[in-house]
C-alpha cells in the first residue's frame, strides 16, 4: 500500500559509538500500489524515490510531480498531501534534519540511488550514518527539475493560482487576470514572476500539463484532455506534455 506519510519501517540504533551522534534514519519504507493521502504533517523530512509510476505531492507552496526515476524532497513539519496518478512503487526515507528548506524534485544520481538501496540493508549505526551523510550531500547538490507548480504567496495571487491549477482551461488572458486581482498588467506580470519564479504564460502551460496528468490517469482520451485543460489543438498539448514529461501523453497513459 502506498502510504506517503506512514513510517513503515522504523530504524533505530543503540550503541555507545561516538559516531552515533551523526544523523540516523527516522524511518524507511518500501511502497507499492496506490493510495491517496489527505493533508497531514510529520516532524521528519521525507525523501521519495519513485521507481515506477507517478505521484503528486502538494503543499501550501505548490504541487510537485515525481515521475518514475525521479526523487522528491519534502521538508518536515510542512502540511502536505499525496496523490498517485499511476500505480507507483519506490522508497520513502524519513530523516530528522532539513537537508533542504524547500520542496524539490530532481533526477536521482546513480550514487544517490545506490545509497538509498544500501540503507534498506541491516548495518551498524555508524555505517548507516555515513551513508545518510553522503546521501544528504547528493540531495543538496542535485539540480531541480521544472516539474513543480508553485503557488503565489500573496493572498489574491494565491487564490487565482489555486483556481487555475484545478481548472486551467478557464484561465483568463493576462490583462483580465491582472484586472481580477486589481493590478495593472505590468504590476501583475512583475508580482507574478516574483511570487512564482515564472511568467503567467509559463505557469499556465505547466498548470495545464499537471492537470492533464490527473485526467489521463482517469482514462480520458488524449484529445479530450487537450481541450479540457485549455489547448486549442492536440498537437500543441502533446508538444508541451513531451517537453515536461519526456514522452507523449498517449505513451504515458499506456504505462510509458
Automatic annotation (TrEMBL):
InterPro entries: AraC-bd (IPR003313), Homeodomain-like_sf (IPR009057), HTH_AraC (IPR018060), HTH_AraC-typ_CS (IPR018062), RmlC-like_jellyroll (IPR014710), RmlC_Cupin_sf (IPR011051), Tscrpt_reg_AraC-type_HTH (IPR020449). The keyword Transport does not apply. GO terms for molecular function: DNA-binding transcription factor activity; sequence-specific DNA binding. Transmembrane segments: none annotated. The keyword DNA-binding applies. Residues 158-255 form the HTH araC/xylS-type domain. SUPFAM superfamilies: Homeodomain-like (SSF46689), RmlC-like cupins (SSF51182). Keywords: Activator, DNA-binding, Transcription, Transcription regulation. This is Arabinose operon regulatory protein. It comes from Gallaecimonas xiamenensis 3-C-1. The lineage of its organism: Bacteria, Pseudomonadati, Pseudomonadota, Gammaproteobacteria, Enterobacterales.
Amino acid at each position: 500500500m502506498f502510504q506517503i506519510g506512514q513510517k513503515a519501517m522504523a530504524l533505530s540504533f543503540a550503541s555507545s559509538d561516538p559516531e552515533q551522534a551523526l544523523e540516523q534514519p527516522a524511518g524507511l519504507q518500501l511502497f507499492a500500489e496506490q493510495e491517496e493521502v489527505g493533508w497531514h504533517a510529520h516532524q521528519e523530512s521525507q525523501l521519495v524515490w519513485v521507481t515506477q509510476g507517478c505521484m503528486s505531492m502538494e503543499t501550501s507552496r505548490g504541487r510537485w510531480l515525481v515521475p518514475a526515476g525521479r526523487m522528491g524532497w519534502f521538508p518536515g513539519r510542512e502540511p502536505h498531501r499525496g496523490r498517485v496518478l499511476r500505480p507507483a512503487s519506490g522508497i520513502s526515507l524519513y530523516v530528522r534534519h532539513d537537508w533542504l528548506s524547500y520542496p524539490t524534485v530532481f533526477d536521482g544520481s546513480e550514487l544517490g540511488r545506490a545509497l538509498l538501496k544500501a540503507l534498506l540493508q541491516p548495518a551498524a549505526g555508524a555505517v548507516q550514518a555515513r551513508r545518510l551523510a553522503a546521501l544528504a550531500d547528493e540531495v543538496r547538490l542535485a539540480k531541480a527539475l521544472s516539474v513543480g507548480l508553485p503557488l503565489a504567496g500573496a493572498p489574491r495571487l494565491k487564490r487565482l493560482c489555486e483556481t487555475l491549477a484545478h481548472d486551467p482551461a478557464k484561465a483568463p488572458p493576462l490583462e483580465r487576470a491582472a484586472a481580477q486581482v486589481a493590478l495593472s498588467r505590468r504590476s501583475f506580470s512583475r508580482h507574478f514572476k516574483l511570487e512564482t519564479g515564472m511568467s503567467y504564460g509559463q505557469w499556465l502551460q505547466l498548470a495545464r500539463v499537471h492537470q492533464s496528468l490527473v485526467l489521463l490517469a482517469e482514462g480520458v482520451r488524449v484529445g479530450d484532455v487537450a481541450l479540457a485543460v485549455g489547448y486549442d489543438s492536440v498537437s500543441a498539448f502533446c508538444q508541451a506534455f513531451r517537453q515536461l514529461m519526456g514522452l507523449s501523453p498517449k505513451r504515458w497513459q499506456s504505462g510509458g
